[in-house]
Amino acid sequence: SKRGNKLRFSLNSLVSSRTEEFTGKQQPGYMVPDVFRAELLLFKTPAHLPVRQRQVPFANLTVTSPLYRGAVGKSVVSLRQTRWESVDVTEFVRDVVQSPTRGIDFGFHARSMDRHGRRLTVNKLFDLTGERNNTQRPVLVIYLREPVDPLQYILVKAQEASEEMEARKKREALENGADDQDILTRSRREAELVDDNTVREADKLINITDGIHDILSPVEIRSDLCQRHDMYLDFSDIGWDHIVAPTGFDPGSCKGVCVDPLTSSTNHAIVRSWAYRNEHPEVEGQPIPIVCCIPTRFSSMTLVIQEEEGDILKSDLYFDMTAEACGCR
Question: How many Å apart are CA 239 and CA 244, to the nearest integer?
Fold first, then answer.
């Protein structure tokens, strides 16, 4: 909703309930969203300035809120172009959603100076109602990481600790000369102790109130995002027997999904991603290639190669052999 130069956005859609898997009961509560980024989008039209002030090209846009002292976001905007303006309000929104607030209020003003240094207040710069075009209404875009329930988090960590302990004890037992039966008996006994501790910790968690977020913050556990994976390659397996050393290497493999926002990607990839999200898969009849996970940084390596004569070895540096990093492009 809007009131003059003020906007209000509802946060009801961010309120969720928490399901306790141990009891199978749904316990209502406020799960704090993990805000990755938030931006206020305002559609700007050329400013209505008197003739003597039309030489002013830019204005300082300040976004405020009654919930916060001072500005919650700032941006420099053009007074001569019709376009969307984005104001980063991440820190403010992140603070607001920590409380059970069901709405966010914004106020804003745009000011500039003429060539004589006199301050100007720019009015009617943004379309707040969408009366001219319903698609031009103000938008508050909030990017969220998928929250992980604290109960799930502690179970995952307990399982990891159990596996790590079992592997460590097995290595120590082998070093001390224990046989396989002794190792199996010890592993089972230690696993039972870890499981008992896990259940006790889970029982404590179930009884914790909604303030649980102050104790265990949501942790993102995702393995499907774009990232580098190991992929060892033996040169003899692909018929490159003329390579004497090394016998193989890890070229790396880039796999995973690309999700918005693409903060570490190129502007080119970000624009393409926005085009897909806004249902514009084609530009002037030409399909836009989808953003995908590919290598973004390579390293070189030296290979010792045997010449056809059989007795001559040479060492050469080969560029871009190993993928060191991956990204969405």
Answer: 12
